[in-house]
Write a structure and sequence with these properties.
Layout lengths: L2 H24 L16 E6 L4 H14 L5 E5 L4 H6 L7 E6 L2 E7 L4 H9 L3
Parallel strand pairs: 1-2
Antiparallel strand pairs: 1-3, 3-4
């Protein structure tokens, strides 16, 4: 078997996994979700993992923004697997915007401070 076939197969598998993850995330938009006790109806959920490189660069931004926007919740997928599963989180970082207990937007991958602020302006 040639290297080009092996590399092509691996690239195809990775592309398929990415597409399935994106499709799963998009299916959440428009779904009603329950707020946990004391949680606001409109919020930004940030799903992350301790071992995720992009999460390590994005987490300080989330911490900084949470000082100004109280409706941010950081969710460590290793420590809260049931919540991650409830939101079909298959990749980290994943940012989910919930408005009036309805999933409004799902963003996969690292986001800039500007992109996060744009989402958070919709929560206020």
């Amino acid at each position: 078997m040639s290297w080009s076939i092996i590399i092509g197969t691996i690239a195809g598998a990775l592309l398929l996994m990415t597409l399935l993850t994106y499709h799963s995330a998009r299916k959440l938009v428009g779904q009603q979700v329950e707020a946990e006790t004391g949680e606001p109806a409109s919020r930004l959920l940030y799903f992350y993992s301790d071992h995720c490189g992009p999460c390590k660069s994005m987490s300080p931004l989330i911490d900084e923004l949470s000082e100004h926007y109280p409706n941010i919740r950081k969710v460590n997928v290793s420590k809260e697997p049931k919540l991650a599963q409830a939101f079909s989180t298959r990749a980290t970082p994943t940012t989910i915007l919930v408005l009036n207990n309805v999933v409004s937007e799902v963003a996969l991958g690292a986001k800039s401070k500007r992109q996060l602020e744009k989402l958070l302006q919709r929560v206020v």
